[in-house]
Amino acid sequence: MDVESRKVIVIAGGTGGIGRHIVDGIVAAKKYTVKVFSRQDPSSLVDMTVKGVIVVKVDYSDRDLLVKELQGVHTVIVTLISLDDSCVQAQINLLNAALKAKVKRIAPSEWTGQHDENTVIELYRRLKVPVREKIKAAGIEYTVFMIGLLMDYFASPQTASKSIGSLVIGVDFSKCVASITGSGDEPFCLTRADDVGKFVAAALELDKWNENSGIVGSRTTWNEIIKLGEKIRGTKFHVQYTCADEAARLIDTMTDNVLEKLIQQVYLGIVRGEFDFEATLNNICPEIKPTTIEQFLMESWADYKG
Questions:
Q1: What pLDDT is recorded for position 4?
Q2: Which ranges carry the NmrA-like domain (predicted)?
Q3: What is the domain count for the chain?
């Protein structure tokens, strides 16, 4: 396919986090013109531009600029991440500009589980639900990419990705300890960031998007992960369990640490089934073989000397 006939795909926030993995996945497909919206100057992102990625410095409050840069764009994928309300208006501005520029479809910045307005995750209710409702009302084609927990975090305190930081979630494999909300037998999904990029690239080939697109590396439980950790590390883990009701009471007392409150609400969301969903994109794209949690833990911890 010659460059002139390729569909143009915009990734808003594609310079870091899950966005960077999505950019890499789409670039690797060699089927699209990839354009990244960033608040950074393109001259600081040579590692991207050398691969043919077009980096555009944008101000998400400048609606005229957004409309201009979205001319001729087929799909917008949003990966903006924030713990405050700034990303809500940025996404709404992107949506309005996409509608004006006649973009075919959009994927809002969700990249988590199967949540709705009744989710236990406060930040989701405040930052994600309003954007999804605006998109639904606009009538543009869209999908919500559901990926569960990022598998990359299970290498922490090591890092499995240059763009995904270290964050211990549930199980600390370096110390052989775990702190679990619920019984530990509640199922949830998790996916490696590199595999998210591959599946999103594959989804661009679909003629029509479903409202939800499930991407799953593994469907597992905390207790299964702990057993894998004990096998790989060769020692018994010390595990502390907190019942869901007690966890909910503790969350209500958290006021200062926004990130810690979010993590605790994610644990509670797992208990309530918000991270357990159908692997719909896996079913559509069986040629993609994602990394399993066992493979990932072996890769991350089999030779650990800490």
A1: 56
A2: 6-297
A3: 2
- Reported as a single tens digit per residue, the pLDDT across 110-145 is 999 999 999 999 999 999 999 999 999 999 999 999
Domain-located, residue 199: no
Per-residue confidence (pLDDT) for residue 84, from 0 to 100: 81
- Chain centroid to Cα 44, Å, comes to 24
The DSSP bridge partners found for residue 7 are 32
**Buried b / exposed e along 84-122 (16+ C-beta atoms within 10 A):** eeebbebbbbbbebbbebebebbbbbbbbbbbeeebbbe
Q: Which of 127, 142, 157 is the last residue before a domain boundary?
A: 142
pLDDT digits (tens, 9 = 90+) for 255-271: 788 899 999 999 999 99
Q: Are 44 and 52 in contact (CB under 8 A)?
A: no
Q: Are residues 24 and 125 in the same domain?
A: yes
Q: What whole-number distance in Å separates Cα of residue 206 and Cα of residue 210? A: 10
Please report, for residues 38, 76, 103, 137, 282, the alpha-carbon distance to residue 79 in angstroms, rounded to integers and kept in the order given.
11, 10, 17, 21, 21
Q: CA torsion angle for 92, 39, 260, 290 (degrees, to 10)?
A: 90
| Euclidean distance between CA atoms 110 and 100, whole angstroms | 23
What pLDDT digit, counting tens, does each position of 13-29 carry? 999 999 999 999 999 99
Q: What share of the chain is helix, strand, coil (3-state, %, to 5)?
A: 40, 20, 40
Residue 68's domain spans which residues? 3-142
Tokens of 30: 């060699």
CB atoms within 10 A of CB 179: 17
